[in-house]
Amino acid sequence: MSVPSLADAAHTAAALAAVLLLAWAGRAAFRAIRQPPVIGEIAVGLVLGPVVVALAGHGVLDTLLPAHVLAALRHVGHAGLMLFLLGIAHELRARGSATGNRAVVWVASTSFLPALAAGAAAALWIDRSGGAALRGDAPLSSFVLLLAVAFAVTAVPVLARILADRGMTATTAGRLSLQAAVVMDVPAWLLLAVAVGGSGGDLAVPSAVLAGCVAAVLLVRPLLAGGPAGAFCARSPAATAVLLAAATLMVASATEHLGLTSLFGAFAVGFMVPADSDRAPWSAAVGRVARIGDRLMPVFFLVTGVTIVSGPLGGMPWSVMGAVTLLAIAVKTATGYLGGRLGGESHATGLRLAALMNTRGLTEIVVLQAGFSAGILSPPLFAALLGMTLITTCLTAPLLSLIDRAAGPEEGAAARPAAAQTRGARSDTGRE
Asked: What sequence ranges are listed for the domain Cation/H+ exchanger transmembrane (predicted)?
């Protein structure tokens, strides 16, 4: 492996600094218009490459981001994603322990299963009508399963931030939507691993790796919960964070090398980390790692956007993007409302659940990127589904405002009883 020159290293550092600065500007702009700031960060990263190409051509983009710089940024962005997912997995496990009441079960099941079916139906429609140029050449089973997951997920980190910004974390709708999203995302990640593992046509090795990861989680977590590991975590949280980061990157690399998505390797390490105890503040160590990943995520979005324009994108399938967006909104809002009502909640709470369960955000971006990297999604379809993701997520805040106005002063106030306490609260991962 050749050692990069000083000029190459300086070029990479300058590109990294520029990406992070632009991401900060995107967050500030979207915060000013009362949208989740992370959507501004995502949007800036995704459109930066296409905008440069549209204004100045591919030659200028290649000069700004030559192959060696883009390769370095790809590694940085991928590492940031893995470290961020460690925090997400740990948070999902912690939040998941609080779920289990009747309303959560209804909201999760009605939002998840019909959305899976709708995504599968959309995949079959695209397969029949879009042709190989749009669908790609991955096995049909992986394609159907990936779109089913893409329709079903609800973004826990973005949802948590929206609830905090609006003072809804302690409300019935906020609590139910977040807990239901946690319940749904765990099987969604497992299904994603199966879809990506089967994209090569052979499920035997990926299935064995998946089973091995699950067994490792069950075996390693009790070992970390007490004894020397817990004592070391309490004594050296910074060193523990370094070891967790190294373990995450190594396990993620190993699972990808063995035919399973690296995302599942990062998730496996996150689920291995035990809950906090009096002797071991594991969440503090995980939080340090996740914050580093959080800061590097804009690089992941930039590389994703540049990858889109570098591939054979062809004409944007606007009709497909419109169709999948309408279907995604319809199924998530209808089933979110239905789940709330079946769970015994009021009409107003059901409406708020309908809006909140339609939040896809960062989780959807990661799912789509995994499918794109595995060759399951073609560049045009990937771009169309990214558009659907941003549209559905940006709808959440305006829909909640409309519902608050329609509910009247009394119900609108009741929907935000803890605004003073929850304003500015952040999830463990720091994503907004």
From this structure: 20-399
- Residue whose C-alpha is closest to residue 16's, from 64, 55, 60, 61: 64
Report d(CA 414, CA 432) in Å as an integer.
24
Separation of alpha carbons 408 and 360, rounded Å: 28
First-to-last alpha carbon distance for the chain, in angstroms, is: 38
The secondary structure of the chain in percent helix, strand, coil, rounded to multiples of 5, reads 80, 0, 20
**Token digits of residue 16:** 């990294």
> pLDDT of 344-366, one tens digit each?
888 999 999 999 999 987 788 88
For the whole prediction, is pTM greater than 0.90?
Answer: no
Per the CB < 8 A criterion, the answer to whether 377 and 368 are in contact is: yes
Supply 332's token pair.
């998530």
| CATH number attached to the domain at 6-422 | 1.20.1530.20
210's CB contacts (< 8 A; 6+ apart) are 190, 193, 194, 197, 260, 264
For the chain, the domains span 6-422
Instruction: Determine if residue 424 is left, alpha or beta; phi over 0 gives left, psi from -120 to 50 gives alpha, anything else beta.
Output: left
- Residue predicted with more confidence, 185 or 333: 333
The 3-state DSSP class for residue 311 equals coil
All residues at 6 or more sequence positions from 390 whose CB lies less than 8 Å from its CB, including other chains:
39, 42, 43
Predicted confidence band of residue 333 (pLDDT cuts 50, 70, 90): very high
Give me the residue label for tokens 């050749």.
2
Q: What is the largest CA-CA distance in the chain?
A: 67
DSSP 3: P
Give residues with Cβ within 8 angstroms of 151, minimum separation 6: 115, 116, 118, 119, 122, 327, 328, 331, 332
pLDDT in tens, 267-302: 889 888 888 776 678 888 999 998 999 888 888 888
